[in-house]
Amino acid sequence: MNMEYEEYLSDDEELHMAHLNSYDVIVMGADIQTIINTDIYMFMHDPSYPHEEEDVLLLLRYFEEIEEYERCIIIKKFYDESYL
After folding, report:
1. CB 52 within 8 A of CB 60
2. Which of 25, 47, 79, 80 has the fewest Cβ atoms surrounding its Cβ within 10 A?
3. How many CB atoms lie within 10 A of CB 41?
């Protein structure tokens, strides 16, 4: 990560970016390499392994907590299609 940029992020912002990146990869099918090539390449899951059901549930809980319900709907649909 670019250290100059990292200095300006709070812990909450880093946590949020990690969840957004994992959301993009797990739910939206974004290419991991594309995210790794950016200044903010952190994830809430280990992208070197296939995601697990628990990763999806953690994403859902996080976005519920911050009241991003549109993402919750998308995650729930993804979860239902993938695990039910």
Report:
1. no
2. 80
3. 17
* pTM over 0.90, yes/no: no
Helix axes 11-26, 69-83, angle to 10 degrees: 40
- Per the structure block, which two tokens stand in for 29? 């099918």
Determine the Cα–Cα distance for residues 6 and 29; give it in Å rounded to an integer: 25
Distance in angstroms (rounded) separating the CA atoms of residues 52 and 70: 22
User: In one letter, which amino acid is 77?
Assistant: K
Residue range 1-44, pLDDT digits in tens: 444 444 567 889 999 999 999 999 999 999 999 999 988 899 99
Give residue for tokens 């319900």. 69
The Cβ of residue 23 has, within 10 Å, a number of other Cβ atoms equal to 23
- Distance, in Å, from the CA atom of 31 to the CA atom of 60, rounded to the nearest integer, reads 20
